[in-house]
TrEMBL record:
InterPro entries, A to Z: CvfB_fam (IPR014464), CvfB_S1_st (IPR039566), CvfB_WH (IPR040764), NA-bd_OB-fold (IPR012340), WH-like_DNA-bd_sf (IPR036388)
Domain Conserved virulence factor B-like winged helix as annotated: residue spans: 219-275
Similarity comment text for this entry: Belongs to the CvfB family.
Protein name as catalogued: GntR family transcriptional regulator
Organism field: Winogradskyella wandonensis
Length: 276
């Protein structure tokens, strides 16, 4: 079966005037237009292509790589808005359609929006939706506390930043856990800090507890090396100064510095820390 909105590895069946016809071994065929035909090929070769519908609503293959595929989330630019809806740039000749009913806020030409791509069962077309939360479910979690997870920054709230966890769940990074600039659409690594009642996920952008000491300690060592073996920070430094220099909390800084001091890798003086 040839899957729309996904990458398919297909066999070259025949060479025709409009392009190559590809098959899946189950008598399903799709056209790879001439503009995407490789310079050299042989009948019977296998080729990986992305399948979608062209402007005539016909299944077509391309070797271009879209910015998003079915089931994924991505930050896309709106190229134009018509009476039918918005059309987004997703890296292919035909733009990705986002109906008005699927827009969390009315889209504007030139704006950037985090969207989910799915196959509309009524029209059998790939469409986008900026109502991303409806494609997430926390009823049955596939993560546990302290798990490392993949994150996509979704949208801000009054208490922090909402994030998409492993493309399946909704999580939250609290304001006091954010020590670097992050923007909607950013892809990050994080850790499940806590699972609250209702399967609400508290996410940390760093590792938790003792798991956090080693990477932070290594980061401080690297910063010391890059700054002539000295950083103007110590236990008396303000949280704001530590955040500006190292993008970590004072608590994490003190844990990491304590670890480095015990290992005799640094010296702590009144004006800062020194690399031994």
């Amino acid at each position: 079966m040839i899957h729309l909105g996904e990458y398919n590895t297909l066999t070259i069946l025949r060479d025709t005037e409009p392009g190559l016809f590809l098959g899946d071994g189950e008598e399903n065929e799709i056209l790879l237009p001439n503009r995407y035909v490789p310079e050299t090929f042989e009948i019977g070769d296998q080729i990986e292509v992305f399948a979608y519908l062209d402007n005539e609503e016909r299944p077509v293959a391309t070797t271009d790589k879209p910015y998003i595929k079915k089931g994924d989330f991505a930050l896309l630019r709106c190229n134009q808005v018509t009476k039918f809806g918005a059309f987004l740039d997703w890296g292919l000749v035909k733009e990705l359609f986002c109906p008005f009913k699927e827009q969390a806020f009315k889209m504007k030409s030139g704006g950037w929006y985090l969207v989910h791509c799915y196959l509309d069962e009524e029209t059998e077309r790939l469409v986008a939706s900026s109502k991303t939360n409806r494609f997430l479910d926390n009823k049955e979690l596939t993560v546990e506390r302290y798990d490392e997870v993949d994150l996509i920054v979704s949208h801000p709230s009054e208490i922090g930043m909402n994030v998409i966890v492993n493309k399946r769940h909704l999580g939250l990074v609290f304001k006091d856990e954010i020590f670097k600039d992050i923007s909607v659409g950013d892809r990050l690594k994080g850790t499940v800090k806590k699972i609250r009642p209702g399967n609400k996920l508290d996410i940390s952008l760093s590792q938790i507890g003792y798991r956090n000491i080693e990477p932070n300690a290594q980061f401080i060592l690297t910063e010391l090396g890059d700054n002539g073996g000295f950083l103007p920070l110590n236990d008396k430094s303000s949280p704001a100064d530590i955040k500006d220099v190292l993008q970590m909390s004072k608590k994490s800084f003190k844990k990491a510095v304590g670890s480095l001091y015990k290992e005799r890798k640094i010296e702590i003086k009144d004006d800062g820390i020194y690399l031994k």
